[in-house]
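Human:
Focus on the backbone:
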Amino acid sequence: ALDGEYQLSRNKIIKHPDAEYLNRKLTMILRRYEEKLLEIDTDVYTCNDLVRFLRGIRKMGEGNTLNSALDIYLRTVHKEQTIKAYKLAVKRFCNFMGGDVLLSTITTHDIQAYHNRMVDQKLSPTSINIYMTNLKVIIDHAKKLRMVTYHIDPFEVYKKPKSNIRDLDITVKELRRIRNMEPSTYPLRVTRDIFM
């Protein structure tokens, strides 16, 4: 620890028995911060968000990360396709954030910025909805297990996009074909009769 401001000069520690060691350590920390800041879009974050993000990097060995919450949640899932969907949702979010993040550092701003990035990438509303829903499930499960508590939930201000509604009507001609068909098996006859 420093005794006072007189031991600082031009961003260096002076007049301290361990000045050389402390200056090397500070340089390494600052380098790591700079690398992480280069990986994220700093224009979409407030100063407080950036400070929390950088503190989260420094304490990455402590606390619960999004990937640790995913691992715990996946113990409850048994379908391979579902597991892949959750892994992909978390992987995309972590890539957006510049790596695995502490659950406690995820903000409403992060969620909205992530959504906006997917819109900019021209993903369909349905795909965006799937990624966001899967991410929310992981975070909600972590909250349930008390892995994290939020003063403001990260999804508090997020609004789900409307999914594309597809027209699934059949034409009169297609209806007549179904009605007039001669099914070759009993299950097909039952299916036709139920449909009609």
Notes: The first helix runs from residue 19 to 39.
